[in-house]
Amino acid sequence: xxxxxxxxxxxxxxxxxxxxxxxxxxxxxxxxxxxxxxxxxxxxxxxxxxxxxxxxxxxxxxxxxxxxxxxxxxxxxxxxxxxxxxxxxxxxxxxxxxxxxxxxxxxxxxxxxxxxxxxxxxxxxxxxxxxxxxxxxxxxxxxxxxxxxxxxxxxxxxxxxxxxxxxxxxxxxxxxxxxxxxxxxxxxxxxxxxxxxxxxxxxxxxxxxxxxxxxxxxxxxxxxxxxxxxxxxxxxxxxxxxxxxxxxxxxxxxxxxxxxxxxxxxxxxxxxxxxxxxxxxxxxxxxxxxxxxxxxxxxxxxxxxxxxxxxxxxxxxxxxxxxxxxxxxxxxxxxxxxxxxxxxxxxxxxxxxxxxxxxxxxxxxxxxxxxxxxxxxxxxxxxxxxxxxxxxxxxxxxxxxxxxxxxxxxxxxxxxxxxxxxxxxxxxxxxxxxxxxxxxxxxxxxxxxxxxxxxxxxxxxxxxxxxxxxx
Amino acid sequence: xxxxxxxxxxxxxxxxxxxxxxxxxxxxxxxxxxxxxxxxxxxxxxxxxxxxxxxxxxxxxxxxxxxxxxxxxxxxxxxxxxxxxxxxxxxxxxxxxxxxxxxxxxxxxxxxxxxxxxxxxxxxxxxxxxxxxxxxxxxxxxxxxxxxxxxxxxxxxxxxxxxxxxxxxxxxxxxxxxxxxxxxxxxxxxxxxxxxxxxxxxxxxxxxxxxxxxxxxxxxxxxxxxxxxxxxxxxxxxxxxxxxxxxxxxxxxxxxxxxxxxxxxxxxxxxxxxxxxxxxxxxxxxxxxxxxxxxxxxxxxxxxxxxxxxxxxxxxxxxxxxxxxxxxxxxxxxxxxxxxxxxxxxxxxxxxxxxxxxxxxxxxxxxxxxxxxxxxxxxxxxxxxxxxxxxxxxxxxxxxxxxxxxxxxxxxxxxxxxxxxx
Lengths: 471, 422
Known about the structure:
The complex is a heterodimer. By secondary structure, chain A is of the alpha/beta class.
């Protein structure tokens, strides 16, 4: 079950012409920024003091171009959300707006799903330490600062779901965590959870040069693969012992957090998110996957274009990075902007990612646009920012497209998602606004400036009553 | 045409020579010595944009610019067409050519850490015209870069200006010594300093060392000018360079991001009467008035430079270029220095983002053409499309700043370097 917070910020502009009209003016004035401070101050006071039940309120985004992802765009459409869920999507002239709904006029604007970043390092999280190359027991969720300014920059970029990963300096650097960018104060409130309430995430693994160091780390690629195989062989034996014990506490092997995590991988309860660049490293990951039978998403894949056919045959999914230039390290020397196009042509499932801080989360849309520049189709590129990534996190049934029943994670854009001129105007998570470019504080994180990298303030969950506000 | 892709960075002169040789040897082969570039829109950066314009290049130099309908075109010219034509882009600050794409010791010549102050290091002696990143930048319309020693030492060495062509630095170079690179702030400090004072441990120490170097250079300059040659000090390459800075022939390129480091740069510049060009200036917007009053131009940080938490660039803004320009400060954009992935940025992209964060299209384009050329001292050769200037042109299939537009042609000194859509 996903916890849905019910108290907090007001879920959207209450006045349909209201907040978004400031955008249009800003865009019209190209460069002359009018922040409409007075109106915003009022909105902020309402937002900070107000305590409403999002579940009770419907919001309708009416009139804009709707990009649902996975099916045809609606040139003038309506999206209705209620209780944190999408309840209607369709042409504006045939999609009724509930009488109680707050209307947001999106005429001339674009509405699309919140972006899904399959590979992020936002929040200052850490994975394994220098004690060894394989540390699957380490969870990044135990180290994330949810008030890191990076989260606000993510929301400013239209991101609503992240896979936060430990680094690539280990063969297995720890468990990743899937987070939903609610505005909250603890990591526990950001988590995606499974039906048993367990945090959702994958296992970060890496090969190639980043994880090669002095012993006990591997010094070669062959040694890297051998160390991983050795650990998985142990995990297989552990799994067998668990199965033989059949729940009998007398026969059960001692708990081992490392092996438990690897059993989760072997049982496909956790997806391996595997850093790899070179074509031979890509093939090594697939070889290990076939030997041990885990699910894997291949990340970065700088040389995917060299082995697109083999990737297609393997059925593996790829999460691609888009960089402004090749190099920076030897294994990224043959990086090509054409990766997205090559994988699309070969029929390989392809998502994109930021690898923030390697690329800026506020410019995630740009990543797709550059993939299009190098030959990827527009539709696939947009899918790579949303639904494709959601599927690679095992969340494709909940997020990634504007479909009835899915979470109301969506963004309002000033124009075409692939244009440099386009800005993210508003970001919604489960129907609640988590970014509004008309809010001066949000704008600071979107554009930068003095203080834009400082940790954000705590969310004002409790000051409303203290100030005599509404309960 | 298909053979061109196999030629590594053909030097314009060599290619022109080859063209002549081929033309003489085999007159049947059509090799254009004269080039006409025609665009639906031509941004000359020397006047208003021209609708359906042409740029004529003869012997590597622009011989005519104007509307296609009224500009006489030479016979037998090679024709390149595009939706938009601009001057070849000028990257006002890079380290490419000294810093290679592999990011391994063997291709990183942009910073020597043996000493804090090494103004005698020439960029010329370390530039590799075969570096793959040069071809990469050129593919996006960049034809001239100001490159050289990197930020990271108090005085890290010299910079220079090159064209992205040629097989040797001698063929590529426009200005052999453009500026002397100084870094103020964390990047030039070593924790606690060095016992032998080779690197400063604090900001105050760094400025004290820089001032001491200028005082030494003043004394050196005075003694070298004495009438009695027997009293001349021995030639010192470092002091010779700093004396050039004191004499006003070479500006200091001061990399500084924190406002107090920028203030220090202005303070030192005023004390010694030296020309300064500010580099990066993430917090420059906090003291735009002082920068303006000092008459100091700013080569603004890459628009997309990382604003890492806690680092000196944490307060940078996508709107830095616009804010400084609006204050009346001459600005240019740059690809900057990258220590990891990606190994270089591309000024075309940096200008594109700046163009939607407060700069107009024309202002952003100027920041990577004529304004950049002016700040790095090569505006007489490059940066605009005008008669007598170098035949450096970039061609696009749409709005150059749109992410999905391609750069479809690059010309340097009248030689077509690339026609591949990038």
